[in-house]
Known about the structure:
By secondary structure, the protein is mainly alpha-helical. It is built from four helices and four strands; from the N terminus they run αααββββα. Helix content is 68%, strand content 5%. Strand 1 and strand 2 form a beta hairpin.
Amino acid sequence: MLKNKLINIISVIVSLVITLTPFVLFPVCSGTLPNGSHMKCYYTGIFVTALGAVMTLILLINLLSKKKICSYSSYILAIVFSSLMYIVPHQVIKLGDKMKLGWEVGFCRMAMKDGKVMTCFTKTAPALNILIPTMILISIVAIILVFLGENNETT
Length: 155
């Protein structure tokens, strides 16, 4: 019981850190393109912040809930959301189209452009590349602990 509560608190904290990463802790690039539109990393920040906020809310509800089905579903959703937050910015799944829609999710392709450091490439992406797999691992461990706790209660 204590292990489950502890891992739930850790998952909420990691989820909150992921949510705050793109605009607060390790901000994406603040510049705009010559035509005045935002760069891809800005939309990545919005995408990660939105999914991270929903994931944090779901994990907070799980923290307050006593039902095992809530634990299973919240950690499965955390794995799904974390996976999306990883594969969409890396453009395994493309979201948006810069030419047709005027926006696209992704990171800058290089660390420097015109003498400017692209912070999304040097700070945001590396931070998310550590935090998101960590969240996935925490969720997998949590599912295992909930399952083992359920088996121990029935024997």
